[in-house]
């Protein structure tokens, strides 16, 4: 097990500098344009693919870094560049992780390369779990997967919503109900291969922030996928369902919905994205406060402004420490006895919302315009308290973990 450290090693510092360079030179200059266009920034994804940032290898290296700092440092730098573009770059990773976590070696080898494509022909992937009536309450999911034994095919029907890259993805990973009596334990994940008939994009959402990231409904009408597209395989699913039925039969506590279960290991990564956005806005505000003069002196000379900056920086550093701790715990298999992963996501995302609002205030009228980036950063920051479990759900998970009580 790696000791917890707050000092990145030389290799990590080098990777961080490299990512920062890409974020500063390629992502940040493109941010305003793609925010206005509200489209996936394909050329930027392609640039990222060419230098090796948009690839499974890169994420796998960061993911398996035993210090736990690899992923949070990478996310912070990319999202420092711009949240919408960065989500377009890392969004495929959400689907890839779904396959890595549940898929067989063969499934990993077959589908993950198709999710990324290659630098001359980049592709993206989508992870589709949320539905119009199943957001925080994942257990109320309705999309059904029915097995057609004669053909060894699964038939998927339902509507997914809020899917990042939904409808434009080469590969969709779709979570569906195979046994409705088992709550989220009766769910399974399926690969929908490129060009499968019956899968279509529904509404594309016009959003408040992260507008360079494509978010849409995905409609599944009699989508037939081969048996080999069930992640983990049928045998494993049947065993898991049998165990869940046995537990349910013994009166074990009804399975809690998946959004409320502890996604402790993945949440610090979202916390790190929020730290990146918060740090970006703080840096713009600090710079502005030092140079903008009113009443014959820089506005930072006023305690009211300087103290805000002090609070902003303090919260950002605190958020990063919570993120790094949780990420180190995840990589080293430490039990999350106080829901430390949820804690890190909760604190970092609330910090990003607050700090970006403070940054607007420090820039005054300029902060409120699209001439300066803090307005966009504030719109972007609002997503962190919503996706991957809202702030309320994080508090619920933390409170339940601490108290052991079924708090509602
Ligand atoms: C831009 C964007 C990208 C997304 N990307 C994806 C994706 O790629 N794949 C995917 O599957 N999903 C994705 N999502 C969905 C996202 O995870 C959900 O929006 C989120 O889980 C919240 O669900 P909901 O929107 O239905 O809100 P609801 O669950 O309807 O919640 C509404 C409000 O009620 C509160 N609330 C709900 N239950 C409780 C409770 N028990 N206690 C206290 N408060 C409660 C919530 O905190 C919230 O404030 C994305 C969403 C957005 C906006």
UniProtKB/TrEMBL annotation:
Required cofactor(s): FAD
Domain Acyl-CoA dehydrogenase/oxidase C-terminal positions: 258-402
Span of domain Acyl-CoA oxidase/dehydrogenase middle: 126-223
Coiled coil spans: none
Domain of life of the native organism: Bacteria
Gene3D superfamilies: Acyl-CoA dehydrogenase/oxidase, N-terminal domain, Butyryl-CoA Dehydrogenase, subunit A, domain 2, Butyryl-CoA Dehydrogenase, subunit A, domain 3
Domain Acyl-CoA dehydrogenase/oxidase N-terminal: 9-115
Molecular function terms, GO-annotated: acyl-CoA dehydrogenase activity; flavin adenine dinucleotide binding
SUPFAM superfamilies xref list: Acyl-CoA dehydrogenase C-terminal domain-like, Acyl-CoA dehydrogenase NM domain-like
Alphabetic keyword roster: FAD, Flavoprotein, Oxidoreductase
Keyword Oxidoreductase recorded: yes
TM segment ranges: none
Pfam families: Acyl-CoA_dh_1 (PF00441), Acyl-CoA_dh_M (PF02770), Acyl-CoA_dh_N (PF02771)
Family: Belongs to the acyl-CoA dehydrogenase family.
Protein name as catalogued: Acyl-CoA dehydrogenase family protein
Species: Streptomyces tagetis
Organism lineage: Bacteria, Bacillati, Actinomycetota, Actinomycetes, Kitasatosporales
